[in-house]
C-alpha cells in the first residue's frame, strides 16, 4: 500500500479526502495532521466518522511525514508554500489543494496578498488539471491542484480556446457555488439564516481564481485572454456551475459542431461528460462524484456560444481531483477510487 | 373604495395580489375568478388564508366584471388577449400579468407559439414599468405588466442604455430565479427532490423574456440591441437576480460615476434602490417587498461593467408591480399599499 | 403617536419589531439602542433597510429612554433584568422579549445559570400570552414576552389543560424550529453547510422553555404538570411546530369534540386559528404573520390525542406577540399593525 | 458474478440500487425492468448516469427474470405480491422493497386498502431487518425489506423492548423525513415552492408503517405494543429521524446504562452506531451511508427516556438495507458494497 498524509485534516477538503481514500485500493492514510486539534480523534470531532478508526491528529512533524509516499495539503493559502518544499526534497510526492503554487509570483502576491512560494517550486509545480496536463503530471513531484471555479471554467473553455473558436476578449464567466466552498469557519456570510433563500454576488472583481483561469487559458493558446468573471453564493451545500458566454470566431458554427468538437477533445478523459444536444448540466447530476458535466448552446440570434460546466466543488473541484492527480503521479490508474455514480436525488 | 377583480385566482400571482390588496387603503377585491374552482372558497384551498373572508370563486362572467373598476389578469399567456378587450371597451381598467400584450405580433407568435392579441390592443397596451413609462401609465386603460426577468434586466440596463454607456451588441444577462417563478403546477422540474440542492440552466435560448427586454431597450435608445441571456433555477422559493455584463462605450468611467448616474436616473422612483460602492444586492434583501436593488462594479482589468439587479419575482417581478401600475392608472399614490420593509431574515 | 425604544437593535427580534412598527398606525420608533454599534445607521448594517431612515444607534441611556412611552428589550437573557426596573419606575411601559421575567427565581437560576431579577419585578411582570392573560396585560407595566416554543406549546395545550381533558403526567412535546430561532451570531450549529439538509435534536433535556411551559400550565389547572420535551433544528429559516401527544382523561372524546372545544376556548382571540377536521397546520401557512395555527387528531387506535401547533418564531413567537402585548398595555386595538396575511409561497 | 434484476427501475429506490451495485464486488445488474419506459436507456432519463452503460429497460418478462439469481422489487405496493411468487418458485431470491409482505393479511388490507399477497408467501417472507433477524435471513428466499420509518423506529426501540425497559402503552414516535421518501411522482405535496421552508405533519393516524412497527415489536416481546406515531415532512431531500419517548419500567436507570445496553445489543451489527453520552445523532451524519445512528437521553425530571434514531431513508431505510439483506441471503459478507463513509458536508 501507498502511504498518505493529510495536512489540515479538519476542513471539508480533508474530510472528503478521508472519505475517498478509505476505499482506495492502493492508498491508505497513515497520518492526519492538525495543528489545532493535535491528539484528538477524527470521530470525536465528526460524528459521521464514528466507527472509522484512524490515528489521532498529530502536529506537523517533518520526520514523520517524510516517511510517507504522498502528502496532501488541504490547508488555507500560505501553509504549503512553506512546508511542502522540504518534503519534496525528501522525495515525498505533494499535492497542494491551496492556491500556493497556482500563480506566478507577482499574480500570487497581488491576488493572495502575501509573499509567494520560492521560484524554484513555482516552476516545479505542475498544474493538476489532468485534462490539460496528464503527461506532465505523470512525471510530477509537486502538483498544484486547481481551484474549484478554475476547474469548471477551464474545462468549459479549453476546447474552444485551444481551437481558436472564441474571441479572447469576449469571455464572460458567471460562477455559482454552494456554501461548502466557503469552508468550515462560521461567519455572517455562511450563517444559515442569512444565506438560505438567498442568492448573492460575492468577491466581485476580486476572486483569486480569475488570474488562475487566464494563466492556463494562455498556456493553451497564443492569444491574450482577459475574462470577465463574477461569483455567486447559492443556497445549497455542494455544487458549482459556471455559465460562460463568448463571441464565436466563426459565427456559422452550430451547437452540434461544438458538441462534436468537445467530445473529440475530451476523448479518453473519463471525468468530463459532454451532454447531448439541448440537455443542460445541473449540479445535482454530479453530486458526490468526480465528473464535470458540460452542456453547450449556440444562440441562433446572437451567434454567441454559451457553455455550462457543472461539478461538485469538493470532488472534481478539490479532493476528487487531488486523488486523480495523485493516481497519475504515483503511476496508478487515473480513475482509481473515483468511479462513484453521483448521489441522486 | 375602488373595486377590483382578479382572474386566475388560484395561482401564486393572484395569491400575492390578494395578500397585498387586503390592506390597500383604496382598493378592495370584490370578485375572484377561477374557472376550475368555481364555488370554492379561497381559505378551503389555501390554509394560510383561514380567517380571511371572500366571496367564493366565480367563473369568468363579463356582466359581473364589467362593474368593477380594475381587473387583474393573473392567468397564463393566452387568456387575457381574448377576455380583456371587452372589459376595456366597457371602461374597466385592466392590468395583465401575463405576456399577452408585451410583444409585437410577430415576436409574440414566435416566442409564445400562439396567435397574438388584436393589433388594436397591442397598440393600446402600455408597458407597465413605471420607471420607464410612468406618465403614459397614468393615462392608460390597459397595462401590460412586465415579466419578472424583464423587470430586473431592464431596471439594471436602462440608465446605461439611455445614456449610451454600453455597446449594444455586448450585453450578457445571466438570470437566476427561485422556483415560485415556475408557478403552482407540479412537474418534474419543480419537484423538491429534483430541484433542492441543485442549480440548473433552463429554457436556454428560448426564454420569452428575451424579446421583451430587447423591445424596451430599443424604446430607450436608437441602437439595435441584441442580448445574450440565460436563465437558471436556484433552490429557493422567491427571489430573482440578473447579473449583467457589458462593454463600456467609454472605458474610463468608474464605478462611482456609474452609481451616480444610476441614482440620478432613478431619482423620484421609490422602488429602485442603488447600492453604495462595493455593496452588492442579494435576493434576501428584497424578499416580500416591491424593491429592485441594483449594485454596480466596473472591473479594473477588463473595463467592462457588471450590474446586479435583485427583486422578489412575485412582488416587483409580478403582483407588487401590478399594483404599482394600478395605482398609477387609477390616479392613486404610486406607493400605495406597497411600502413593506423586506422580510428579514 | 406613541414613542417606542428598542434595546438590542441589531438582532433578528429587533429587526422584526422595526419591520412591523414601520407601519403601525399609533406607535413610532424614536430610539434604537445598540451598545456594540453606537453611531451606526441601521441601513448600513442591513441592506434590506436601505431607504428607511432612523436615528443612528445610540448606547443605552436612561435619560433618553425614560422619555419614550414603551421600550422593547430584544436582548439576550441577562440585560432586561438590570435595565428594565428603572424604566418601569419612571413610568415607561416595558416589553421584555428575553427570558428574564418568565420564571420564578429558583427556576430562572437553574435553567438560565445566572442571578434572577429582583423579586419585586418578577412578581410585577405579567406573562405576555394574551390568550391566557389578556385582562391582566391591559393593566400591566412590565410584560414578560413568552418564548417561541412556550407560545406554541401553551396555545396547543391550554384548552385541554384548562378543561382537564389530558393527564398531567402524559404530555410529550416534540418541537421543531427553523434556524432564525438561534439568532444572528454565527456558530458551527448555524453554519449553512452543517445545518442545511440536516435535522438534529439539540439542548435535549436542557431547553429553558420547558419550565416556562410547565409554570403556565399550572396557572391554568390545579394539577402538577411535568412535560417531556425535545427540540430539533430544521433546515429552514423561519417557522416553528410543536407536535404534542397526551393521554385523554376520557378516551371517548372525538377529534370533532376537541376541535369544537378549542374553537370555543379561542373565540375572540384573533391570532389563533383552529384547523378543520383532518387539515393539519404547517409552518408555511403562518410565515410572516402573527397567527398560531392548531390542528388536532384523536388516534382511533391509541385514544391518545395529538395536537400540532405552528407559528412564525419571529412573529407570534417573538416580535409580533411583543407588539400584540404592547397594544394591550397601551390601550390600543390588540390586532393593530399585525393583520398581515401570511407570505405564500 | 451473481446476476441481479431490478423491477421498477425508474424510481428513487431503484436508482439507489443501481448506484450501490455498480461497485458491488459480487453482484452485477443484468436486467432493469420498467413497464412504462421499455426500450429506453437509463442515462437518457437520468443524466447523472451518463457514461454508465446498461441494457435498455425491458418490460417484466418472467422468462428472463427467472434466469437471474436475485430480483429486487423497487415497486409501489401491489406489484410484488403478484409477480414475486413465480420467481421464488423458480428458485430466484427476491427482495421486495414495497410493503407487500410486511404485514399480516388483515392489517395489510386495512392499511394498504388492497388485497393481500397469498398466505403462503406472507408466511414465507422473512422481515429484512438483519439486526432482528439475521439468522433467518441467511436461510430466506423471499425478503420483505422494511419501511424507512419502521427501520428507524424498530432499531431505536428493540433493545428497550427486548429487555422490557419501557412500558408497552407509553411509546410515542415522532418521525421526520426528507422529501425523497415521497418518491419521484410530482404532486402539490412535493412541489418545491410548497415544501421548501415548510414543516408539516402528514398521514396523521394513517401511516402504513405503524402496524409494521407494532408487529415486529411484538415478535421481540410478550407484551402488547400500541404506539402513538406521527410523521412530518421536512425540507430536505434525504434523511429520516425518529424521536421516540417512553416511560421506563425502572425509573432509576441512567443514560449511561441505556447506552451500555444498546451497545451490547448491537454488538456485531456493523450498521448501527450508538452515540456517546450527550451526543445526539443528526441526519447529515449518515447521509449516503447505510448507518443508523442512535442517541439516548434519560430526562432527569420526568424519568422518561428519549431515543433518537437517524438514517438515510434511501439507504438503511430502503436500498442499502435491501443489499444488506441480499448479501445475507446469498451467503456474502453482510457489509459487502455498503461500507461508504457518509457524505459530509
Automatic annotation (TrEMBL), chains A, B, C, D:
It is an enzyme of class 1 (oxidoreductase). It comes from the Bacteria. The keyword Protein transport does not apply. Its EC number is 1.2.1.38. One of its GO terms (cellular component) is cytoplasm. SUPFAM superfamilies: Glyceraldehyde-3-phosphate dehydrogenase-like, C-terminal domain, NAD(P)-binding Rossmann-fold domains. Gene3D superfamilies: Dihydrodipicolinate Reductase, domain 2, NAD(P)-binding Rossmann-like Domain. Pathway: Amino-acid biosynthesis; L-arginine biosynthesis; N(2)-acetyl-L-ornithine from L-glutamate: step 3/4. InterPro entries: AGPR (IPR050085), AGPR_dimerisation_dom (IPR058924), AGPR_type-1 (IPR000706), NAD(P)-bd_dom_sf (IPR036291), Semialdehyde_DH_NAD-bd (IPR000534). It is found in: Cytoplasm. GO terms for molecular function: N-acetyl-gamma-glutamyl-phosphate reductase activity; NAD binding; NADP+ binding. The active site is at residue 148. SMART domains: Semialdhyde_dh. GO terms for biological process: L-arginine biosynthetic process. The keyword Cytoplasm applies. It catalyses: N-acetyl-L-glutamate 5-semialdehyde + phosphate + NADP(+) = N-acetyl-L-glutamyl 5-phosphate + NADPH + H(+). It holds the Pfam family Semialdhyde_dhC_1. Catalyzes the NADPH-dependent reduction of N-acetyl-5-glutamyl phosphate to yield N-acetyl-L-glutamate 5-semialdehyde. Belongs to the NAGSA dehydrogenase family. Type 1 subfamily. This is N-acetyl-gamma-glutamyl-phosphate reductase. It comes from Salisediminibacterium halotolerans.
